[in-house]
Amino acid sequence: YICTAEINCAPWQDTVCRTSFRMSVKSRLPEFLEKCERELDRAVDFWLQHSHDTEHGGFYVCLDRDGKVYDDTKYCWLQGRQVWMYSRLYNDTEKYHRPDVLQAAIAGGEFLMKHVKDPTSMKCSFAVNRDGRAVKVQRQPFSEVFYFLGLSELHRATGEAKYREEALKMMDQLVQWMTVDDSGLGRPKWPGAADTDNMAVPMMLMCMIDQLETMDPTLSDDYTELAAWCVERLLMHIQRDGTVVLEQVSPEGHEIPGCQGRLQNPGHAIECSWFLLQYAVRHNRPDLKKTAINSFLLQPFSAGWDDKHGGLFYFLDVDGYSPTQLEWNMKLWWPHNEALIAFLMAYKETQDEQLLEKFAQVFDYSFSHFVDPDHGEWYGYLSQQGEVTHRFKGGPFKGCFHVPRCLHMCTQLLRELLAA
């Protein structure tokens, strides 16, 4: 196309001018598919080649840019995520329906069951050493959530009853902790601490319910009320007449004072948007579909996008104060992964081309900044200006999950769009 813009593009728009008259973005669907497929293959190959501990089981997660192990501590929520990712690829994608992928998933699942969970308390370690001895336990349920997700998807892949039974036991425990009594997590109740409703809790439960329905659709009716409760709790985080989504609110759904009450995490709200959108489509809820797109996707994206340098800020203060999180203005991989999924899913459900243009905006930034042309998997951490700040591909908070999940889901969605 010929650029007819009369203004300068932002610095990050050095390859495709988004302000010009141009061909319909729909013409780029084959390009999007080709690049997503290629990057998915490169990411999966990276983890298959470099992360497997064939002596002790489980996965190395602390991998340098080229895949070299720089620390053999095994972070357990990432162990569960990798089991889920391998199993989902094996279950859903013909080219990954291979013995090596399945055996890697099984090895990870066995490591989880043997080393990660305390059978008495049901708590999972946050980190173990290479041979599986506990290093750290968190007072949060994240390791347990991904223990459940990994084993439930592994059951789909193998048909082994033991994985299903273990997953359902953990699901029951998580529902108890998250909705009834969280004392088993070990968090003390301090007299000066206000009760809050954290958006992560109903989000995680929605994700787990979706996983259960995928594993066994006959279980859907058992969790109908819980799913409705999750939706209700998530909608409470829309505040200030629908103009913001806050990470924490009071249990009654009111804004709470202070920095934490004003905190926005654009990537988290955007991830929530496609959780809600999936639910709305499945249950024929056009009202919720509209809210998912307008309140949880478009508003956080607009607030979180850096117009000068491109990319999504990690944290924001809704009143414009400097967020207290020191990394607030960094550009992390996973919010961009979630935005790619959310915009493409929203476009598929609405055929609103403006949503596809937002997808293209995130796509162009992500593929020009996070992709390592020399080695597979994406970088995870960029400065505000878009420079790589941490060269590793895996660490305590980044493993084989967000990048391949995003690319896998986008590949599926793009194929459906092109077929239609």
Question: Can you walk me through this structure?
Answer:
The protein has 420 residues and is mainly alpha-helical. 50% of the residues lie in helices and 7% in strands. It has helices spanning 29-50, 76-92, 99-116, 142-158, 161-179, 200-215, 224-235, 266-282, 286-304, 333-350, 353-369, 402-419, and strands at residues 62-63, 69-71, 74-75, 127-128, 134-136, 197-198, 238-239, 244-245, 248-249, 263-264, 316-317, 331-332, 381-382, 388-390. The strands form 6 sheets. The protein has a 3-stranded antiparallel β-sheet. Helix 1 (29-50) packs antiparallel against helix 12, helix 8 (266-282) runs antiparallel to helix 9 and helix 10 (333-350) packs antiparallel against helix 11. The longest helix is centred in the N-terminal third of the chain and has 22 residues, at 29-50. The model is unreliable at 1-8 (pLDDT under 50).
Task: List strands and helices in order, with pairings.
Blueprint: H1 29-50, E1 62-63, E2 69-71, E3 74-75, H2 76-92, H3 99-116, E4 127-128, E5 134-136, H4 142-158, H5 161-179, E6 197-198, H6 200-215, H7 224-235, E7 238-239, E8 244-245, E9 248-249, E10 263-264, H8 266-282, H9 286-304, E11 316-317, E12 331-332, H10 333-350, H11 353-369, E13 381-382, E14 388-390, H12 402-419
Antiparallel strand pairs: 1-2, 3-4, 4-5, 6-9, 7-8, 10-11, 12-13, 13-14
Helix pairs in contact: 1-12, 2-3, 2-4, 3-4, 4-5, 4-6, 5-6, 6-7, 6-8, 8-9, 8-10, 10-11, 10-12
